[in-house]
Backbone:
C-alpha cells in the first residue's frame, strides 16, 4: 500500500510546487510555512487538484479521505444528528468521543471552531481508511484535545497517513518527516 | 480599560473584569466561551444583562478591528487589494491616499506578493494576514483577534504579533491556544472555563495558579 508523487509540478500566480516522493504505509508528517504549498499538495494527493505535469500513483488503496483545514467545509447538514449520520457512524458514539454535550438537533456552525474540529475528527476516526490525508488537523484544538488526537492517531497502525501541519509541539509518532520549502518537497527524517 | 460589570450573555457570565490597555490574551479549553467573549468585546454580540465599557464607551461606539476564527468570514471582496482598502473606501478616503496606505500596510505585514491575488485562492494563513491588514488599515482603538495563530506557522505568528505590538493599538484582545505566546507577549491574561473567567491578571500569576495543567507554558507537549 503506497501513494507516490511522480514528477509533480504545479504553478499558479507565480507560485511553483515540485514533488517527487513515495509515501509508504505508516504516518508521514509534512511541515512548512504558510503559503508553502501544504494544502495544494494535500489536494493534489487527494485528487481534488490537478498538477500541471506529473502523476499521483496509488497502489493498494481502496478507501481514502481528505480532511480539509477548515472543518466547516466538510459540513453537509444543519443539525448534528444528520451531519454525523452522513458519515455512516453513530451520533451518540461520536458526540461522546468528541466530548460534546449538546442536543443532536444543534446547528454545527454554532459550535466553537475547536469543537467543530473535534466533531469532524471524531467522525473521521470512527472509520478505517487505506489513505488518510489530514490538512492541519491540530488547528483550533486546545492542548487537551491535541494530546487526545495524537494518542488516537498513534493507535492506528494500518494504511498510509499523511499529516500536513505547522504544529511542532504535539505530534504523533511518525515514520517520516517531510518539509516543503520554497515549493519543494523534501524528506527530513 | 475594558470594564465588565455584571455581564451576562447566554451561558457566559462575567460579574467583574477589568482589562488594562495593552495586549490581553484570552485562553482556555475549546467551548469555554472565548470566542463569545471576544465577540462581546468587539460589539458583534451585546450583553443580555450588565455592561461592557471600553474607556467609558460601549463597544459599538469604539473603532474596532475584528478577525474571526473562521478565516472566510472576514472576507468581503475577491481581490486582496480591494479587501484591504475597503475600510478606507467606506470612509470615503481620497483614492491616492487609500492606495498609499494599502501599499504601506501590505509591505509592513509582508504580503506584497498577494496584492492582486484572488482571496479565495489563498491559503488559510494568508487569508488571516489579509484580514489583519484590513483590520489595522483604520488604525483601530481596539483590535480583537480570535485564534488567528492557529492558522499560522510559529515564525509567521511571532512576526504578526511583533507588528501588532509596534502599531501601539491601545487595546488588543487575542485568543490563542499557544500558552508560550501568552507568556511571551501578553500584558494581561484571562483564563476561561465553562463560560466563566476562572483566572485573570498578569500572565505569570495566572500560570502559577494553573500549575501543572497543559494550559501552562511548557506543559503542552507532555
Residues:
Amino acid at each position: 500500500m503506497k501513494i507516490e508523487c511522480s514528477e509533480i509540478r504545479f504553478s499558479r500566480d507565480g507560485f511553483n510546487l515540485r514533488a517527487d516522493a513515495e509515501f509508504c504505509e505508516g504516518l508521514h508528517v509534512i511541515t512548512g510555512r504558510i503559503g508553502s504549498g501544504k494544502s495544494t499538495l494535500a489536494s493534489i494527493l487527494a485528487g481534488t487538484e490537478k498538477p500541471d505535469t506529473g502523476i499521483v500513483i496509488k497502489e493498494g488503496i481502496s478507501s481514502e479521505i481528505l480532511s480539509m483545514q477548515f472543518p466547516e467545509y466538510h459540513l453537509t447538514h444543519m443539525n448534528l444528528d444528520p451531519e454525523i449520520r452522513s458519515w455512516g457512524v453513530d451520533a451518540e458514539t461520536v458526540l461522546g468521543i468528541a466530548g460534546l454535550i449538546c442536543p443532536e438537533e444543534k446547528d454545527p456552525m454554532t459550535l466553537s471552531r475547536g469543537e467543530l474540529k473535534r466533531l469532524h475528527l471524531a467522525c473521521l476516526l470512527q472509520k478505517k481508511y487505506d489513505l488518510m490525508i489530514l490538512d492541519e488537523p491540530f488547528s483550533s484544538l486546545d492542548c487537551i484535545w491535541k494530546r487526545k488526537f495524537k494518542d488516537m492517531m498513534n493507535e492506528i497502525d494500518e494504511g498510509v497517513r499523511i499529516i500536513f501541519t505547522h504544529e511542532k509541539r504535539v505530534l504523533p509518532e511518525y515514520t517520516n518527516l517531510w518539509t516543503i520549502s520554497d515549493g519543494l518537497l523534501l524528506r527530513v527524517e | 480599560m475594558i470594564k465588565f460589570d455584571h455581564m451576562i450573555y447566554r451561558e457566559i457570565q462575567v460579574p467583574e473584569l477589568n482589562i488594562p490597555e495593552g495586549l490581553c490574551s484570552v485562553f482556555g479549553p475549546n467551548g469555554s466561551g472565548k470566542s463569545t467573549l471576544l465577540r462581546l468585546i468587539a460589539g458583534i454580540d451585546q450583553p443580555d444583562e450588565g455592561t461592557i465599557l471600553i474607556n467609558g464607551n460601549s463597544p459599538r461606539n469604539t473603532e474596532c478591528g475584528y478577525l474571526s476564527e473562521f478565516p472566510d468570514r472576514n472576507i468581503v471582496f475577491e481581490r486582496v487589494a480591494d479587501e484591504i482598502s475597503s475600510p478606507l473606501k467606506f470612509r470615503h478616503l481620497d483614492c491616492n491616499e487609500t492606495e498609499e496606505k494599502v501599499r504601506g500596510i501590505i509591505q509592513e505585514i509582508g504580503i506584497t506578493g498577494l496584492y492582486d491575488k484572488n482571496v479565495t485562492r489563498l491559503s488559510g494563513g494568508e487569508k488571516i494576514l489579509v484580514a489583519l491588514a484590513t483590520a489595522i488599515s483604520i488604525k483601530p482603538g481596539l483590535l480583537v483577534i480570535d485564534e488567528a495563530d492557529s492558522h499560522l506557522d510559529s515564525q509567521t505568528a511571532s512576526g504578526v504579533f511583533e507588528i501588532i505590538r509596534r502599531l501601539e493599538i491601545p487595546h488588543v484582545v487575542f485568543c490563542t491556544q499557544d500558552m508560550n505566546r501568552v507568556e511571551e507577549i501578553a500584558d494581561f491574561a484571562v483564563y476561561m472555563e465553562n463560560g466563566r473567567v476562572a483566572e485573570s491578571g498578569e500572565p505569570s500569576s495566572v500560570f502559577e495558579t494553573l500549575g501543572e495543567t497543559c494550559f501552562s507554558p511548557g506543559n503542552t507537549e507532555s
About this structure: Chain B is about 35% helix and 25% strand. The mean pLDDT of chain B is 91. Strands of chain B lie at 2-9, 12-19, 22-27, 49-54, 64-67, 142-146, 171-175, 188-193, 196-201.
